[in-house]
Each structure stands twice: as structure tokens, then as C-alpha cells.
Specification:
By secondary structure, the chain is an alpha+beta fold. It is 18% helix and 26% strand. It is globular.
Amino acid sequence: MPEITLRSRHRPSEADIVPEGRHRVCLVVEYDGTAYSGWQRQANAPSVQQCLEEAVTMLTGERIPVIGCSRTDAGVHALGLVCHMDTASRIPADRIPYAINTKLPWDIRVRAAKVAPPGFHARYSTCAKVYRYTFYNARQMCAIGRQYAAHVPKEMDGARMTLAARDLLGTRDFSAFAASGCESKTTVRTMYALQLTREGEKVIFRIMGDGFLYNMVRIIAGTLAEVGTGKRSPECIREAIETGNRLCLGMTAPACGLMLERVLYEGDEEVIPELFDPEQSGVFYSGSGKE
């Protein structure tokens, strides 16, 4: 596997200043996004951030923001979204998950908590994210687990999908992969690793990059689904990168199949082989010519 060094582009700013008498706590959150408008607090719809902030208030009496590493769309799930809060509570950080989960709905859980290192910011210190998209590839959709996969009834050709997906690796201008409304200052991103596997009737696509544009992973997933079922050529991703033309790509896949699996920070290099084991089938790294 090529050597990957995780380096944050974050520079000290006012966002790093913890108010006097408080300390910054980092939380790892898992949630089923089916019932929520996404991570970010909304005026007229329930969000994961709102639920967490209300739980913090019930637990500590403090009305403080909980800052997430990124936003997820309505219906998208997370296994390991990272967030932080600046609290004056004397509850030990390692006890916070037990305490706060009693205040949260069943579909949101804080899995871990720790005192954040100096200068840490859940969003700005992020080095990479790992997303997973799951297709249920069978004539009939499943009843159990249907909220975590997108249904594709036509047989998917994994070899065609892998051929297309490999063009994503490396540093590219992904302007064609951003949905309208994307507010990112630059559309250049680096994709470090990807994996495409079949587990029974599930086809699972996993990708690691230093950042993703609005709806980017869902556009990739929708395109791969169309490549796999023969609707598009495996060369369509390369063409989209070269031309910047969104019309080269497929549909935006449903939110239900998408999962934010892991957020990586400086020093997390050791977990990359656990997520993308080079000995496994279907794993590719940026800069490597072979599996």
C-alpha cells in the first residue's frame, strides 16, 4: 500500500479558543438518519445536531453548540461522525456517552468521548473521511435493512464498476460531481483509496478522500450503478473529470444507501489498512497500479 500521511490544513483561529472555565470534548456519534433532515440544525425539521444540543442541555443545563465535522444530507446515516462541544460540565469525558445517551432518541448514540487535544476542531482539523454506499442487488428489495441500502434489481457487473471507479483515485477536479447549490471554494479533491465488494445480495462501495463536494458520493454511487447495469460506459467517470460535464454522469443515488463510516485526523494513519486492507479483494490505493 502506498504511504499516506494525514496532514490537516487547519491553522489556528478564533474557532480554536475555548472560553475560560470550559474544556473541549470530542464526541463520536452514530445515527440512523432516516427520520432526520441531516446533521445540521434546521428551522422547520428535526436534525441530529438539534437532538444532541437538546440532550446536552438536559444533561448539563448548558445551551451550547455542538460542532460537527461535516454536514450529512437528509436520510444519510453515520457510524462515526465526529463533533465537539465546549462545556463547563465536570462529568468525566469517558462517562459522557453513558449519561447523554439516556437523553437521546434510540436512533442517535454517542459511542465515545474524550477531552480534545489543544487546537482541535472537529471540522477544520479533519484530514480525510471514509464513506460507504450499499446497494441491494436482487430482483426484490429486502424487508429487513431496507433503510440502509438502495435497491438495484438488475444484475450489477462488479468488474465494470471497478474499472470506472479507479479513475476517481488521485487529485482531481471533481466539479462535475457537485450538485447544484455546492458552496465549496474549490472543487479539487484527493481520493486516497476505494473498495468495491459483493457480500451476497449487497454490493458495497467504500471511498476515502480528503473531502467531498455536495452530493458527490451519491453522484458517484448513482453513476457506478448505471455502469454496473450497462446503462453507462466505464469511461464515463474519466470523461466527466476531463470535461467537467455533469451530463457524463448518472443519477444521484438515494440518501438511504450512504453512510459516513469514519473521520480521520492527524495520527490516524494506522487505521487505514483496517478500513482498506490491501490483502482484501477489490481494494485500490491512489498511486498503486494494482489491487
